Amino acid sequence: MPLTQAATVVGAEAVKVAEILVKEEIRATLTPELSSGYTGLVTNAVC
User: Fold this and answer.
1) Which member of 6, 36, 44, 47 lies 3.0 to 4.6 Å from 14 by CB, making a disulfide possible if both were Cys?
2) Using an 8 Å Cβ cutoff, are 14 and 7 in contact?
């Protein structure tokens, strides 16, 4: 999922998190196995 699409779905927090992960060089290809570990953890909270 492109970052702009992720930000549209879950909010601007996705961009902030992605920037930190890239800065710290924490990257991996998202496989179905990795994705399943995060299913349901991200919500679109309204502040």
Assistant:
1) 6
2) yes
Give the single-character DSSP code of 2. -
pTM (two decimals) = 0.44
Q: What end-to-end distance do the CA atoms of the chain give, in Å? A: 24
DSSP 1: -
What token pair was written down for 34?
């990795």
Region class of 25: left (phi > 0), else alpha (psi between -120 and 50), else beta: left
pLDDT one-digit tens code per residue, 1-47? 677 777 788 777 878 888 888 888 887 777 888 777 777 766 665 65
